[in-house]
């Protein structure tokens, strides 16, 4: 079953069970997927990679909002963001731990033969493609800088 179909089924279930937070999050996912489908130059169906990219972007937005609301002492808004983050996370692959990410980035650097910061763009391009949906680009960049900066 495609992600779009899973979201539609989830919407039906959330409506039946009167789960308003889950319903809000699923409708947001559906809207984002429809928007991605109708973008200029987009195809009728979204690739798995594009779907993961959309979900990752949504998750990152929710995380930033959650941090802001928590910092500004707005637990009501933070709770809504947390609820949506939990729903979005069910559709994303398991996120990599820091140790797993470091091992993957090290393997990519070795594979590409990168030796210093001048190779960061090449490493980042490969790493972001291989690790799409499994971790955040900022985390990848931080580890690449750390490893390449030390060499």
Total strand count, please? Answer: 0
Give the overall shape, derived from the CA principal axes: globular
H/E topology pattern: HHHHHHH
Strand content: under 5%
The structural class is mainly alpha
Low-confidence stretches: none
Determine Rg (CA atoms, Å).
18 Å
Distance from first to last alpha carbon: 46 Å
Number of helical elements: 7
In round numbers, the mean pLDDT is 88
Tell me about the largest β-sheet.
none
Proportion of helical residues: over 70%
Q: In brief, what are we looking at here?
A:
By secondary structure, the chain is an all-alpha fold.
Descriptive terms for the model:
151 residues, mainly alpha, globular, single chain
Task: Give an overview in words.
There is one protein chain. With 151 residues, the chain is an all-alpha fold. The protein has seven helices and no strands. It has helices spanning 3-16, 20-38, 48-71, 75-89, 98-112, 120-130, 137-150. The longest helix is centred in the middle third of the chain and has 24 residues, at 48-71. It starts with a helix and ends with a helix. The model has no long low-confidence stretch (mean pLDDT 88).
